[in-house]
């Protein structure tokens, strides 16, 4: 049972993930990338709208995720397309599914099956297209899969995760990208086998290549969960100001939250939530510095605020 005396405070994790100068080319590079996806002649209008919104809000919205949400909303509106990444998302799922038997073999042959499943879940976080910090298309995944599978965790709090999971409560699992979600399934199965109820949370509306309810249903994700909810909004990561009542209740009652990817880390850092395991690849300098690791590192970081 997870006892109060084992709770650890992390004073080095600040209350908010603020945007940095490095965020500007990353954000605008992704806007340009997504503006070209529909091929509808509205690339310039999309970029212009995004730049205008960025200039209006950078000085008044310090949080990197909320700033990016506003910028992408302007881009999508100008494009007139609700899900410009849809084709990429389907292709990402197809690329990931090819490796299902390979990762399951890797997990079963590992000395620590739980830790191996965590590493596999983080492996999928490379499915992050358009910002120039990961792979740029699902078809590139084949060339990096084996090297990703061999990577160790730069921060390894899997032991703390297991201790909480062994209390057999509820784990809320906040998903990130399509394709990546395929690699989350073995970890979810491990957690449920350990006696926990698992509630999944996907994005409320299409944004980037993040998984939505439609995407989850396409790959049968809901069949792996006890309950599937959404964030209830168009948002990079999770905007707790807009989240639905049922999702909020599950987050508040959870024994642990697992948050995948950098966007969830950036958006939830300022929230006083239940013990949260951030599973991600630190793909940029600002996030790596915030976490306390090197760019390119794989991280399973437990954050418990007292």
TrEMBL record:
Starting at the broadest rank, the lineage of the source organism is: Archaea, Methanobacteriati, Thermoplasmatota, Thermoplasmata, Methanomassiliicoccales
Q: Where is the signal peptide?
A: none
InterPro entries recorded: ARMT-1-like_metal-bd_sf, ARMT1-like_metal-bd, PH1575-like
Q: Which domain of life is it from?
A: Archaea
- Can you name this protein? Damage-control phosphatase ARMT1-like metal-binding domain-containing protein
Instruction: Spell out the Gene3D superfamilies in the cross-references.
Output: Uncharacterised protein PF01937, DUF89, domain 1 (1.10.8.380), Uncharacterised protein PF01937, DUF89, domain 2 (1.10.285.20), Uncharacterised protein PF01937, DUF89, domain 3 (3.40.50.10880)
Pfam families (alphabetical): ARMT1-like_dom
Domain Damage-control phosphatase ARMT1-like metal-binding, chain residue ranges per copy: 20-299
């Amino acid at each position: 049972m997870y006892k109060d005396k084992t709770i650890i405070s992390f004073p080095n994790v600040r209350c908010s993930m603020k945007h940095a100068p490095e965020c500007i080319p990353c954000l605008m590079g992704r806007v340009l990338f997504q503006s070209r996806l529909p091929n509808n002649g509205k690339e310039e209008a999309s970029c212009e709208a995004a730049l205008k919104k960025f200039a209006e809000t950078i000085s008044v919205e310090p949080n990197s995720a909320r700033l990016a949400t506003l910028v992408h909303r302007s881009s999508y509106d100008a494009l007139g397309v609700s899900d410009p990444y849809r084709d990429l998302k389907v292709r990402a799922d197809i690329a990931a599914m090819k490796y299902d038997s390979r990762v399951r073999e890797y997990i079963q042959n590992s000395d620590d099956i739980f830790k191996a499943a965590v590493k596999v879940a983080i492996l999928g976080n490379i499915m992050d297209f358009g910002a120039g910090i990961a792979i740029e298309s699902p078809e590139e995944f084949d060339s990096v899969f084996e090297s990703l599978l061999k990577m160790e965790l730069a921060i390894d709090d899997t032991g703390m995760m297991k201790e909480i999971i062994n209390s057999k409560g509820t784990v809320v699992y906040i998903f990130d990208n399509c394709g990546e979600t395929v690699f989350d399934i073995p970890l979810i199965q491990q957690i449920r086998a350990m006696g926990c109820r698992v509630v999944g949370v996907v994005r409320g509306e299409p944004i980037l290549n993040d998984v939505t309810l439609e995407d989850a249903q396409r790959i049968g994700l809901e069949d792996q969960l006890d309950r599937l909810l959404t964030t209830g909004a168009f948002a990079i990561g999770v905007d707790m100001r807009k989240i639905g009542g049922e999702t909020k209740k599950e987050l508040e009652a959870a024994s642990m939250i697992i948050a995948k990817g950098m966007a969830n880390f950036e958006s939830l850092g300022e929230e006083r939530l239940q013990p949260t395991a951030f599973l991600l690849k630190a793909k940029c300098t600002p996030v790596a510095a915030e976490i306390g690791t090197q760019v390119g590192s794989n991280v399973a970081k437990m954050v418990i605020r007292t």
